[in-house]
Structure prediction request, 126 residues.
Amino acid sequence: MSGKTILYVEDNELNRKIVRDLLKRTTYVLSEAFDCEAGVAKALAEKPGLILMDIQLPKISGMDAMRQIRADPAMAATPIIAITSFALSGDDRKAKAAGATDYLAKPYSPLDLLGLIRKLLPEGDK
Ligand SMILES: [Mg+2]
Prediction:
């Protein structure tokens, strides 16, 4: 593996493209999943270095996805950044209770997201 892997679980293609473009200029390797089921399966199989978790996913929410991922002892310490839409409604606290290391509320600046990623998973030497 040439870079550290980040798994992004997000159902919205435009949001995935923004993060894809953001990480192109870094050494991180991006893995993507579109829903909870695929996201949990990829997290447990690929053991990424960091997970970006959209909270609003179809059918099963990102909150449940984080709980399922955290249930695997091998994923207990993996940084998870929750992407919430409703910071004012307490989603930030709920996300942390469900296992998120940190969170960003939409709309966020891509550079803020990159800063948070680098803080939790240092990019390392190129
Ligand atoms: Mg969504």
Q: What stands out?
A: The radius of gyration is 13 Å. The chain is about 40% helix and 20% strand. Residues 52 and 81 are 5 Å apart (CA to CA). The pocket of magnesium ion is lined by residues 10-12, 54, 56-57 (CB under 6 Å).
